[in-house]
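User: Okay, second chain of the day. Same drill as before: sequence in, structure tokens out.
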Amino acid sequence: MNHPFKLIGSAVCLSASAMLASCCCQSGGNHPANTYAADREQPLFPLLPNGATQAQKDEAIFRNTRVTAKTFDADGIGINYCEGVYNMDAAGKPTVLVFLHGVGERGSDNRSHLRYGFAEIVSYILAHSDTKVVLLAPQCPATEGWGNNVQRGGDGIIRPESVFANLPKLVRAKMAEYDADPARIYVTGFSMGGHGAVELAGRNNELFAACVAICCGGTREEAERLKNMPIALYQGDYDETVRTELTRDFFKFLQEAGNTQCSYREYPLIAHNAWDVCYNDYATLDWLFAQRKH
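Assistant: Same drill. Structure tokens below.
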């Protein structure tokens, strides 16, 4: 697709509310409403002096989002993750949300994977104090990935010794620890993490109630595994990292598989950072937290 604004590139800047007002939304069923709550949102971005290093910024986000860095032993496979436990004085059992980061935040510092999107999610949760949430953010090792999508060059094989293959063990352990609501276990992610969310939900659809995946892509096989799960897809139409047509195709595959609970939203003039818009829209997580497994 040729873009008439290509020379403008990243200099194009629209307010989030304007972008959401003009976005394209298609759906095979119920989908998130288009409501941007700018007056209520206070993302937990730290105020740091000019010249702060990336490590300093990552550490500040870690502190401001009130998480704890931990390591989980999944039968000999160590999983580094950050855990945030919020609104535990609210009524009812907690929900569990798994957040999967992108490829650039892989590593072992248990900090950098919170760099994008995570603070916005925490801001939403803190603004909705009537809902208990256990937020899990595992970090993918530098030598691995989330999932293995053949659509994007992988062989489709999930290695049993990988951190990704063992994430369900972490989720189930936390469900037991916090006596979480088994009908309200969710996963979201962007880029590599968007595809990871698709893979994790599809391969463990007895566990997850719903999925939000941003700039993810996906195959017919993955769509078949997700044909009975509520799933919301988001994509920037200017994305040259995960090509827009990959997520468009995945939405079509979901519909062809018979999924009547899938939706697709495409943001105009947005590149690979569609998560900046998606997680800043209250409707995204309003929809996700409203889903329940039957």
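The chain has a mean pLDDT of 86.

User: Thanks, on to the next one.
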